[in-house]
Amino acid sequence: MPLDPVYYVDDFGQVIAGVRARYGFLLNGAEQRHLATLDGLGPTARMLYARLVNRKGPCFRVARLTYPEIGSLSAALAELLAEGLVEPCDDAMDPDARARLYACFTHAELKASLRPHAPAGPRKDALLTWLSAWDGCDAWLMAFLRAHEVVRIPERDPWAFLRFLFFGDLRDNLSDFVTRALGHIVTETVEPARLRAHFQTRGAADDAYRMAMLYAAFRSRRDRQPAVATLAWWQAQAVDRAALSAGASTVDRLVDRLGRLLEREGEMDAALALYATCPVAPARERRARLLIKRGRRDEALSVLGAMAESPCHAEEDYVARHLLARLEKKSRRSEARHYQQTSDCLVIDYPDGAVEAAVLAHYHAAGWQGVHSENWLWNAAFGLLLWDVIYDPDIGVFHSPLQFAPSDLHEPVFYERRRGAIEARLALLADPGAAHAVMIGHFDAKLGIANPFVHWHEDLPRLLGILVDRLPPHGLAEVLRRIGRDIKRHARGLPDLFLWTDDSYRFVEIKAENDHLSPHQYQWLRYFADSDIRVSLEKIARPRGGVSCLTASAL
Questions:
Q1: Phi first, then psi: what are they for 348, rounded to 5°?
Q2: N or C: lower Cβ tally within 10 Å for the chain?
Q3: Which pLDDT tens digit goes with each residue over 295-306?
Q4: Are residues 402 and 180 in contact, defined by beta-carbon separation less than 8 angstroms?
Q5: In b/e form, how buried is each residue of 140-179, taking b as 16+ CB within 10 angstroms?
Q6: How many CB atoms lie within 10 A of CB 506?
Q7: pLDDT band at residue 214, thresholds of 50, 70 and 90?
Q8: What are the helix (H) ranges across 237-313?
């Protein structure tokens, strides 16, 4: 069914209504007046504004604006200009605004308009550099804009912030409504009255928005300038992480990405100084590794001691133990490397890139049934057993009708906020039939709805039935509990294969030649064993003369 040509007007209205309903208490006077101005627009002006703010801007060539459903744009544009919702571009714009204006034109168009003044043959970036220094630029720009009418969204326009409040993310926009309307994605339904504000104070909203905007600016800069220049820009922002009421995780991500760029470009001292500004993972690990590499043992021990005493998560705890053992000369091999070297070895032939399929075929020939389960089967068990717990709107973590997952999904508080409900459902695993019935009920009722844990597959109910029937209930509960405690890290790294017979089962992690066990994978193997779940690690080697394999019993 085709969309109504003016579908976006209703979507635009939903954003305005949602912002008013959930964030009216924290909007300032200018934002309230802006919404009132939008309410007072005529139909075509409202349509044009909705179109412009959902396009890449902020500058737009009027001659290139073509919207058949609006008809003549002149009246709509005149109304927006009169209300101050758009403004003409002129020669009084600052250098940054001029750069955005020039982005509306091709290299060829700019070069043609600058003849005979511009030097021959430069690329667009070189042409713009020359243009910014040319003493005739202002006069040329005045004449150029008389020939090419260009308007822009004013810098004071608050729509980007209002949209951020509605979606909770800069990356989302009105096109998400289209995706849903066309059926490309189906999300869980949360009644509008049960949606809650993501931010409870103006300070939190401002901090989160500012950090999101800075991260977007970082992504734009990192590919077009040296890392040290990006670092200078970041330092000039004077962000005090400790003072933020929201957005600290965005700062941590930016520091990690920028620090790694500095490392790749050989700016080790700058990277160390940057990592030192961030007191959490992964910056602490990167700082410790750089200190070790540069021979600053005492400083590295101090950082590693803090990591070991109060690790941010299990992976950081593992890294701290490994690096401390190296510094204290107890072992240069990690626990994962040692474990892999003493694991079982299976000699079979396999084509490149198909080692899991070859091992699965080997076990099928030996009488086992099985699937390449890795993360998806465990995640599906978590998502289908706990669907209603995950999507409970009363927890207050659904803020937009387009959300496909709760906003705290990757936060430590996810489990704590739902502890009682999660534990009650995990206790149901003591009755495999009852637990499987809950999973099947959710499978049938929610089939096709987007869920970060569930990849829909027609054989999923049968495989989940085998899983809950074969595994010890306490072991299955322990694995699902661990996933829930840290979804961001624990929903990955699980064993490759799930194998079973009529009365047995096992999980197998596979490592081909030259493939190394990651800390995530090692930790899951140990956790499975500690939870009384049968699991083994198998090194796979192609048959050839002189192959020697250490053999160890399965865990």
A1: -145, 160
A2: N
A3: 999 999 999 999
A4: yes
A5: bbeebbeebebbbbeeebbbbbbbbbbbbbeeebbebbee
A6: 20
A7: very high
A8: 248-264, 268-275, 283-293, 297-309
DSSP symbol at 24: G
Tokens 């899983």 locate to: 467
Domain range list for the chain: 7-105+148-181, 200-336, 342-541
Number of Cβ within 10 Å of residue 524's Cβ equals 24
CA distance 362 to 346: 10
Please give the C-alpha separations between residue 354 and each of 6, 118, 511, in angstroms, as whole numbers.
50, 57, 12
Cα-only R_g, the chain? 29
Residue 111 burial (C-beta neighbours within 10 Å; 0-12, 13-18, 19+)? middle
Give Cβ neighbours of residue 129 (< 8 Å, ≥ 6 apart). Answer: none
pLDDT of 7 > 90? The answer is no
- Whether pLDDT at 553 is above 70: no
| Residue type at 222 in one-letter notation | R
Nearest-5° Cα angle at 237, 234 to 241: 90
Q: Does 286 have pLDDT greater than 50?
A: yes
Cα distance between residue 493 and residue 489, in whole Å = 8
Residue 224 predicted with pLDDT over 90: no
Angle (nearest 5°) at CA 404 between 399 and 410: 80
pLDDT band at 70 (very low <50, low <70, confident <90, very high): very high
Q: What whole-number distance in Å separates Cα of residue 177 and Cα of residue 198?
A: 19
List, edge to edge, every strand of the sheet that includes 344-347.
344-347, 535-541, 505-512, 497-500, 369-372
CB 184 within 8 A of CB 10: no
Distances (CA, A) of 465 to 425, 440, 510, 531: 16, 9, 24, 20
Please report the pLDDT score of residue 513 as a whole number: 79
Contact between 428 and 435 (Cβ < 8 Å): yes
509: left (phi over 0), alpha (psi -120 to 50) or beta: beta
Q: Which two tokens stand for residue 506?
A: 């096992």
- From the list 267, 254, 183, the residue with the least C-alpha distance to 220 is 254
- Give the distance, in angstroms, between the CA of residue 254 and the centroid of all CA atoms in the same chain: 13
Give φ, ψ of 529 to 5 degrees: -60, -45
State the pLDDT confidence band at 548, using cuts at 50, 70 and 90.
Answer: very low
pLDDT digits (tens, 9 = 90+) for 183-212: 778 889 999 899 999 999 999 999 999 999
What superfamily in CATH does domain 200-336 come from? Tetratricopeptide repeat domain (1.25.40.10)
Q: What is the pLDDT of residue 170?
A: 85
Say if residue 452's pLDDT is above 50.
yes
Q: What percent of the chain has pLDDT over 70?
A: 96
Look at residue 234 and give its three-state secondary structure. helix
Rounded distance, CA 147 to CA 404, Å? 47
Q: What is the DSSP string of 58-123?
A: SEEEGGG---TTT--HHHHHHHHHHHTSSEE--TT--HHHHHHHHTTS-HHHHHHHTTTTSPSS--
